[in-house]
Amino acid sequence: MRPTLRENAVTYDVAVIGGGPGGLPAAIAAARSGARTVLVERTSALGGAAASGLGVLGYLDRSGNKALGGIAQELIDRLVAIDGSPGHFRCPVHNSITPVSPDLVKIVAVQMCQEAGVDILFDHELLDVGVDDTDTVRSVTVYGKLAKTRIDAKVFIDGTGDGDLAYLAGVPHLLGQDGTQTMQPSTLMFTVTNYDLPRFWAFLDENPEEMGIKEDYAAGYDVDFLRRTRGHCYIGLTEHVKDARAAGKFNIPRNQFIYISTASERLLAINTSRVTRIDASDPVQLSKGLETGYAQVWELVEFMRANMPGFEDVEIAQIAPALGVRETRHFVGEQRLTMDTLYSEATTEQAIALSAYNIDIHSGTGDGIELRVIEEPFGIPFGSLLPQQVNGLLLSGRTISVDSTVFAAARVMGTCMAIGEAAGLAAAMAVRAGTTPKDVDVAELRQELAARGAILPGTVRPAAIAVTTH
């Protein structure tokens, strides 16, 4: 008899789908609160884009005040203790940057899950969602290694980024930017080694026009800033990119080159690949996007060797195992946070996380970036985590209900981690009370989050942190 797929069935209190910034803290928070929790991840690593070497944004606001605590800060503290991060660094452009080691992120993430009692299912893809006649999610079916597993749970959390669980459950959604449906581009991150940054900085001394951010908000973003700041992001080489494009040697739809420091001074993360005009929630387009990304990685290596003093012998250290997706589906929640309601009393009173990054919209059709400074961090209301028309489900990470402009600030990893912790704690509270997430008392949720070290609007936040230097 021909072998068939194995079929398993398991039961949990809380099931979290997706182990990136929106899912990882959710699973840890739920398990620490006493809920029997499973975390399903479609790849072989937890951490999402942080596991690619991309620095984490959102820990400090424009004034240098801390905006993230709780599990998000605990992750960095644990990385710092094993040289997996040098900590938080202020930045005139990005407000702050927190470099990380991609591989140590993977290790610490698993350690934190194990200590909390989270069961992890790696290399499992979501196949189906079971919704009953009361529009309540009751189960999901996942697939991994010739086995289908049905997971029954009392509460589910969508940390997939693209909102695959919410989509299959029937939550109403929009695609891309409001009005145009254009999606921000994707990036295939990679890290490089064998370079000489002091030589490159000396080149910038002689060519200051190649420091690419000249806007008033970026005062102090110069070569000296790069030299004295261990954790930084370089954006520039505008003229060299333009010249290489004219010579037919730069075909990436990006007008500048970007590198980001990591936890190791021997590795830089390259965030310059740009895959436009794809819907990464479509598997065929996602696959084509990866093809484009791999071609761009090699093109960027050749560009560095030919155009960047100190990078003549640069080598690829690692290419991210998945395409970094900025934007796909936007789901409709009980509350939709908009630019008009960022600082409203209702938003502040209901807020379960802070967003401290700027509005950062990468063109989905061109080569530029629109960046608007957010002077004061804003709250993410709990209603943005509650999907319309579906019960038993919480949205987390970049699946939450916000307009596409707010999304451009709230989508970064730091903010997604804070949202994830709130989702996990809310799920455990619902399980404990025998109710649905929509019945969770927000005041109680906020109180419990604050007790666990989360930073919320309307509470006293730690004083400004000085710029960290070598």
From TrEMBL:
Q: Does the keyword Metal-binding apply?
A: yes
Official protein name in the record: FAD-dependent oxidoreductase
Domain of life, source organism = Bacteria
Q: Does the keyword Metal-binding apply?
A: yes
**Parts of the chain that traverse the membrane:** none
Q: Name one Pfam family in it.
A: FAD_oxidored
- Mind telling me which InterPro entries this protein's record contains? FAD/NAD-bd_sf, HdrA-like
Q: Which organism is it from?
A: Occultella gossypii
Keywords attached to this Swiss-Prot or TrEMBL record, sorted alphabetically, are: 4Fe-4S, Iron, Iron-sulfur, Metal-binding, Oxidoreductase
